[in-house]
Specification:
Order of helices and strands of chain A: HHHHHEEH
Strand content of chain A: 5-15%
Oligomer: homodimer
Number of strands of chain A: 2
Number of helices of chain A: 6
Shape of chain A: elongated
DNA sequence: ACTTATAATCGTAAATCTACGATATTAAAA
DNA sequence: TTTTAATATCGTAGATTTACGATTATAAGT
C-alpha cells in the first residue's frame, strides 16, 4: 500500500507553501525543476536533435540505468514538456513544442525583467 | 533479507551521477535548481526591483518563516547568484550580476538551440 | 507456443529539500 | 549594562528526488 499519507492537516499545510505563490511563479518553478538535472537536459537535447522520435536510444546515451531514464522521461511527460506514444514494442518520445514555447516565454520573461531592473538600479 | 548491498563506496557513487555529465550541463542544472522554487524566484525579483539592497524585507514579503527565507538566501548565495554583506545588525543582499549573466547565457543558449533544432526537424 | 526485446512499473535506500521553532549572535538603543 | 531587533544557525521532521535491481507487460520474432 503506497500513498499512506497520514498528514494531519497541520502537517499538510506546513509543507505546501508553494500554493502561496502565484500560479505563474509555480509554473516557472516547475519548468525550472525539469531542467534541474543534467540528465533531463540531455534528454531534451537528444529529443530535439534527432529527426525521428527516439525511445531507448536515450538510455544508450546516458550514464544511467534504464529504469532511471524511464523515470526521468515520466517526469518530463507529466510536466507536459514531452509526449510519448507506443510504437510496437518500443515507445517513442518527442518534445511538446507548445509546452516548450510556454517554458521559453516564462524564462525569457523572468530573465529579461530581472536584467532590465538590474541595469536600471545598480545597488551593489 | 534480499540483496544486502554492501560496498559503501559503491553506494556513494551510485548517487553522484551528476559528475558523469558535462560541467556546463551541471552548471545549468544548478542554476535551474535555484529557480525551481517560487520563493527563490520571488527573492530574486525583490532584490532586482528595489533600488537599495534589501535584507529582511524579503521575509515580510514572503509567506515563509524567517529561518526558511534565510536558508533560501544561503542557497542562492552558495550558488553565487546573490551576494550579501552585513550592515550593522541587518544584512544586505543583492544579485551578483556577473553570475546572473552567466545563468542567462546558459538558459538562452539551451532554449535557443533546442528551439532551432525543433523548427528544423519536426517529428511529432 | 516459446523466446526475445523493449520499456514501464514496483520496491527500496540514500540523499537532498522544505519548513519550522528554538537558539545563538551581534550591533544598536535604552 | 541591559534590552531590543535583525539574522544566522542548529536540530529536526516529513516530503521529495535520485538511483538501482527486480519484476511485469506486451509486441515481435522464431
Amino acid at each position: 500500500m503506497k500513498n499512506n499519507r497520514k498528514a494531519t492537516i497541520l502537517n499538510a499545510m506546513a509543507l505546501n507553501k508553494k500554493t502561496q505563490f502565484s500560479p505563474l511563479e509555480v509554473r516557472l518553478a516547475d519548468f525550472a525543476k525539469a531542467l534541474s538535472h543534467p540528465a533531463r537536459v540531455a534528454i531534451l537535447r537528444v529529443l530535439a536533435e534527432r529527426q525521428t522520435c527516439v525511445c531507448g536510444e536515450i538510455v544508450a546515451v546516458l550514464p544511467l540505468a534504464q529504469s532511471t531514464v524511464s523515470q526521468h522521461l515520466k517526469d518530463l511527460k507529466e510536466l507536459g514538456l514531452i509526449k510519448g506514444e507506443i510504437d510496437g514494442t518500443r515507445s517513442c518520445y518527442c518534445i511538446d513544442w507548445n509546452a516548450f514555447q510556454e517554458m521559453k516565454n516564462l524564462f525569457q520573461n523572468l530573465l529579461g525583467t530581472l536584467d532590465e531592473m538590474g541595469t536600471k538600479n545598480g545597488c551593489c
